[in-house]
Amino acid sequence: MLCLVETTASDLGTVGGTDVYAGTVWDTPPDPPDPFDEADVLEFGFQIYATQGEAADYVSALDQVIAPVLAGIGRWQILDPALASENAVRFHQQHPRPRQQPGQQLWDVFVGVRGVGDAMVLGEEVFHAVERAGMLFEQMSQILYHNGYQEAAFEKYQELADFPNG
């Protein structure tokens, strides 16, 4: 159910445990285009609560869900899930969410992409594809490695380091 409310109140409280903010779509301008090309690496990161087996299953499912979105862009590599950093775990402990089940830990799942497109548009498409598939995650991040930072990304995403056909 979607409910649109017009009010002059500033303290809107929470709905389903999520803060409600006042504002309009005109308060924030759209993100500017952020083009990338074959020389760059675009990285998407997902933080999930899972057991080790669930994290591996998440990677398999993620690959199937994002493949239709990324196939038109270029190549991608999904890294094996890794336990999240202590800082990330501490942050999520300070801001608990009801998704964590007993026995689960916080994992990072990273996807590197090479091709041609707009990072902002692709990020939205990946986000919505994963969301539509019902795949839960705590947060999604996005980093564009370009202007001399590609080597660090190529160390992480070795399958993407070489140009296709060359």
What does this structure look like?
With 166 residues, the chain is α+β, with helices and mostly antiparallel strands. It has helices at residues 52-70, 86-94, 119-132, 150-156; strands at 14-15, 18-19, 35-36, 41-50, 74-78, 82-83, 105-115, 117-118, 139-145. The strands form 3 sheets. Strands 4, 5, 6, 7 and 9 form a 5-stranded antiparallel sheet that branches. Helix 1 (52-70) crosses helix 3.
CATH level-1 class: Alpha Beta
How many domains?
Answer: 1
Order of helices and strands: EEEEHEEHEEHEH
> Could you report the average pLDDT, rounded to the nearest whole number?
86
Fraction of residues in helix: 25-40%
* Distance separating the two termini: 52 Å
What is the strand content?
25-35%
Structural class: alpha+beta
CATH architectural designation: 2-Layer Sandwich
Name its key features.
two-stranded antiparallel ribbon, 166 residues, five-stranded antiparallel β-sheet, Alpha-Beta Plaits, single chain, 4 helices, alpha+beta
Summarize this structure briefly.
30% of the residues lie in helices and 26% in strands. It is built from 4 helices and 9 strands, in the order E-E-E-E-H-E-E-H-E-E-H-E-H. The chain has helices spanning 52-70, 86-94, 119-132, 150-156, and strands at 14-15, 18-19, 35-36, 41-50, 74-78, 82-83, 105-115, 117-118, 139-145.
